[in-house]
Amino acid sequence: MSDEKMLNFESVTAALDFAIAKEQEAYDFYTEWSEKLEHDAIRQVFREFAVEELKHRDLITDAKEGKLELKIDEKVRDLKITDYFVDVKASAGMNYQDALQVAIQAERGSIELYGHLASTAASTDIISLFESLVQEETRHKVRLEKIYDDNFLKEG
């Protein structure tokens, strides 16, 4: 996400529009791949994440429209199991492991994006929004990392 770290937005509206578009992209990704992959467990996780990405998009849209309602949960501890993986690209022949890696990379990118947006925002409401989204995306990443750990890293 090195390119996105350098993003500068002319207004809060522009930052929110960008975030809305990113959530829509995430929804599209999870929806598309939930239908393409053969492994039932990851298909189900991708379907659930698609629904959550729509909720994120709607939350950001509400913030843009001045209807901001936030709930900040406790901080989620990032396992960082897969932070050092070589990037994997989505492809028609993705297997279960590749699909998990691509999804984890996407969630990591979202965490970085929202962290950057929170650090550059001026409004405490907008900062809270982006910090809340960092926690949500971290939850997704941790869930995927646990699946990855259970299936590919544990011995025996």
Q: Secondary-structure map with pairings?
A:
Elements: H1 2-5, H2 12-36, H3 40-64, H4 96-120, H5 124-153
Helix pairs in contact: 2-3, 2-4, 3-5, 4-5
Give an overview in words.
The chain has 156 residues and is mainly alpha-helical. It has helices at 2-5, 12-36, 40-64, 96-120, 124-153. The protein is elongated. The model is unreliable at 1-6 (pLDDT under 50). It has one domain: Ferritin (Up-down Bundle).
Give me a quick take on this structure.
The chain is mostly helical and 156 residues long.
Main traits of this protein?
156 residues, mainly alpha, Ferritin, 5 helices, 0% strand, elongated, disordered N terminus
CATH hierarchy, class: Mainly Alpha
Beta-strand percentage? under 5%
CATH architecture call:
Up-down Bundle
Overall body shape:
elongated
